[in-house]
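Fold it.
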Amino acid sequence: MQFNGLLFFVIVICVGYLSVKSRLVPESATDVLPPLLLNVCFPAMLFMNFAQTEIQELIGVGVPTVIATLVFSLLPFLVSIPLFRRADAARRPLLRYLSGVGNTSFVCIPLMSLFLTKSEMSIVFIHGAVMDFLIWGVHHQVFLGTTEGSRRQIVKKVLLTPNLIAVAAGVLCSVFSVRLPAFLTYTLDGIAAAVSPIALLFIGMLICRYGLFGWVKSKTAILYSLWKVLALPCVVFAVLYFLLPFKTACILAILLGSPAPVTAVLWAKQYGKDTKLAVDCLIPSTLLYFAVMGTILAILLKSGVIGV
């Protein structure tokens, strides 16, 4: 099944690439798919996962996941503040953002869902919810380079994101043992099932739009990919190995090594930052992540660490 799933990855990415290359789909579709995924499909997946998971299980995996995600996302970000203080103004907020955020929705969930059980995927979803909170509660204001706006506006922006609303609704359903009507469950499951195809199609379309090897001359992009996908997960695992069960430490290390987020490209375009650098970091780190973490997940599955 995992081999077929990996072939599915390659094929769907190629379909996304060829659909734009052959002009069957306009390049502008790359601007439409992320909001559809992040605001519709991904919240449906989050809601169904949390609603169908026992609250005791959510608490058991949730507490260490929340703490580890906060610590290992905020530490690199805090280090990046003085580290990149002399960087060009168009690059500084982007580099800081890339230091503390990964690509859970477009990369981690499609890949890890091939190998992890439903219970293990709860770690992925909780991690994603915390990252969503950090993205809108911390990184967005820093990316803008301003603290303008009242606290009420910032809190409203954070709390009203579709993903966090979906998590809250799912947890409430779990706590009060709410069972949805069959037609609604079927509908939400169908919408949630679109996450992987849309994410992979988008990656293929993005590669076509910006080029597969445009990053090869970017030293920054190469160093970023090596640090984020290879070095950081090793550091995370080395620490968590002594604090958490082996399986949990492995999953969190893989999650925290996720590649550059799609929002980096979207925000760079929207706010006039270095879009080329964002793309240069996104493509190699994503390809490296699929290759390295796909192999590691296959080994962990074969050895019985995950998937049981």
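The chain has a mean pLDDT of 90.
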